[in-house]
Write a structure and sequence with these properties.
The protein has about 300 residues and is of the alpha+beta class. The protein has seven helices and 18 strands. It has two domains: about 130 residues, Protein Transport Mog1p, Chain A (3-Layer(aba) Sandwich); about 150 residues, Protein Transport Mog1p, Chain A (3-Layer(aba) Sandwich). The strands form four sheets. The protein has a seven-stranded antiparallel sheet, with helices on both faces.
Length: about 300
Amino acid sequence: MRSFAAAILSAILSFTAAMAAEPVFPPASRIGLVPPTDMVPSRRFTGFENEEKAAAIMLSEMPPEAYEQMGAGFTREALKRQGLDMTSREEVKLGSRTGLLISGAMTRPVPGRKWLLAVKDSGITAFIVAYVQGGPDGYSEEQMRDALKSVALREPVSLDEQISALTFRVGDRAGFRPVKVLAGNSLLFTDGPADTVKAVEQPVVILAASLNAPPPAGERRNQFAQLALRSTQTLKDIRIERSEGFRFRGQDWHEIVAKATHTESGQPIVVMQTIRFESDRYLRMVGMTREESRDWLLPRFRAVIDSVEMEP
């Protein structure tokens, strides 16, 4: 009788362990994995985190050709310039897929440990960044490596499902159509026949929600907004025409209109950046168009962010 009960208990425990080992897919993500104990899906990015242990795993979907580019670009010297002192680099086998796993010590902005994993598939490169800040506290090397090696990929998720997983809703698209969700927190719009926009041949609108706390009110927000605009990698030679903060609908806003050069093509463009600040988060809109279309497109850019409702 006891042996029968023990067998039943063993079967239950084995079943529970098997269920627990199933990969978890964040909302609308093609990438999933078995997160370490006590890590939960993040509301701030696509991935998992444990704020008490200052640890996170971030998942990014990239084009298939990115795998070879990462393999060539992730040199010891290049990573060191980005604040990662590499201690190991290895090719790993993940079922039928090949992966590149890099680990090392973070030297900035805060000390800690970091892992980079790129996984090659026919239609996607899965890029996973994991970190544990601080010293030996938090998760062990073995726990993090086990989590990364459990990575799984699924079939593409529909655009509507990706949009539904965002933390905001757009009430007025102002004639633009959504074409892509970026990093699990941003939505790209355009107006025209092409889904991939090169050299701003069509207008582009990007809405991005951040659950990070905004800077204090006043001059700090002006500095924050200008730094955000100048940090946009697709822009260079930025010449600000207007930069102002204002109150609207009971919230603090900041808006910049500037001329700039599209980095890749050298095309002169006009950019509008509008940031809506809340007490514990903010929403950023960046709209880009060619000069000849600015008069009728800038009001449409603003109409989009004016209509956005944030999820509670």
